[in-house]
Amino acid sequence: MKPADWFAFVLLSALWGASFLFIRVAAPAFGPAFLMDVRVWLAGLSMLLFTTLTGKRISFRGRVKSLLLLGALNAGVPFTLIAAAELEIPASLTAMIIGTTPMLTAVAASLLGEEEMTFGKTVALLAGLAGVGVLVGWTPIPLTFDSLLAAGVAFLAACCYALGGIYVSRKFQGVPALTMAIGQQLGAGVILLPLALFRLPRAAPPAEAVWALLALTFFSTVLAYLCYFRLIRNAGPTTTLSVNFLIPVFSLVGGVLWLGETVGWGTWVGLALVSLSLMFVTKSEDGGRRKSGTEKRALLR
C-alpha cells in the first residue's frame, strides 16, 4: 500500500475502535435505540448528501426490502445491542467480543453451505470461543448476572454481523459499496424508528453525550466509510478486513486512557486468543473464499 493507504488503514482502525468509546459515553444519556437511530439517520443522510455533491449516482430501486433487512442485520440490531451491552460492561471488553465477528462469519458460512469448514476455521472457532471465555471469566469487573447478560448481548451482536455478512454476499452481488452503505444506514433508521420513539430520553442529554453522538456519527461512521471505500479500492478486501486486528487494541487503549477502564491479565490473554482466531480466518479466507463474497463481507461496521 501507498503511505496514504496505510494512513487510511490505521485511521479506519482507530475510528471504528473509538466508536465503542463514544457509545459508552452517549448510551446512558440517550438510550441504546434512540442513540443508534439518530446515528444511522444522520450518517445515512450525510453520505447521501456527499454522493449528490460529488455527482455519484446510487439507486435503491428494487432493493428496498433487501436494504431494510440488511439495515436490521448489519446495523440497527447489532448497533443497539452493543449500546445496551455497554451500559453494563466496558467499551474495551465489548470491542473484543465483537472482534469475534470474522470467526462467526466463517462458521455461519460453513453451516449455511457457503464455504467449507477448514482446519484453519476450526482452530479459529476454538480460539475465538476460548478468548471470549477468558475475557468474560477473568475480567476485572465484578461478574454479576447483568454483566454476564451484557457480554451475551455483545456476542449476539457479533452473530448479527456474521449473518449480515452472509446476507450481503448472497443478495448484493454487483451492488456498489456506497449504495449498500447508504441503504444500510437508512434501512436501519426506518427499522429502529418505532423503538426509538417509544424510548425517548427522559432528560436533556449532557453536552458530553451530544459530542460523543456527533463523533460517533461523523467520525466513526461517515469518515470511517470513506476510508473503507478507499482501502477496498486500493488495497483489496482481505487487507481491509485486517483492520479487525487493530480495532480492539484502539478501543482498549482508549478505554484505559479516556474512560479510566481497568484491564487485567485475562484481558490480554483473551485479546490474544481473539486475534489468533482472526488470523486463522483471514489466512483461510485469503486462500479460498470467493472474491465476490469477500469484498462484501468487509462491510461490518
UniProtKB/TrEMBL annotation:
Main localization of the protein described in the UniProt heading: membrane
Location(s), subcellular: Endomembrane system
Superkingdom of source: Bacteria
Membrane topology according to the record: Multi-pass membrane protein
Family assignment from sequence similarity: Belongs to the EamA transporter family.
GO annotations of cellular component type: membrane
Record domain EamA: where: 9-136, 151-282
Keywords recorded for this protein, A-Z: Membrane, Transmembrane, Transmembrane helix
InterPro entries per the UniProt record, alphabetical: AA-Vitamin_Transporters, EamA_dom, EmrE-like
Lineage, opening ranks: Bacteria, Bacillati, Bacillota, Bacilli, Bacillales
Listed transmembrane segments: 38-55, 67-85, 91-111, 123-141, 147-168, 175-197, 209-229, 241-259, 265-282
Matches recorded under PANTHER family: AMINO-ACID METABOLITE EFFLUX PUMP-RELATED, INNER MEMBRANE TRANSPORTER
Protein name according to UniProt: Permease of the drug/metabolite transporter (DMT) superfamily
Keyword Lyase listed: no
Keyword Flavoprotein: no
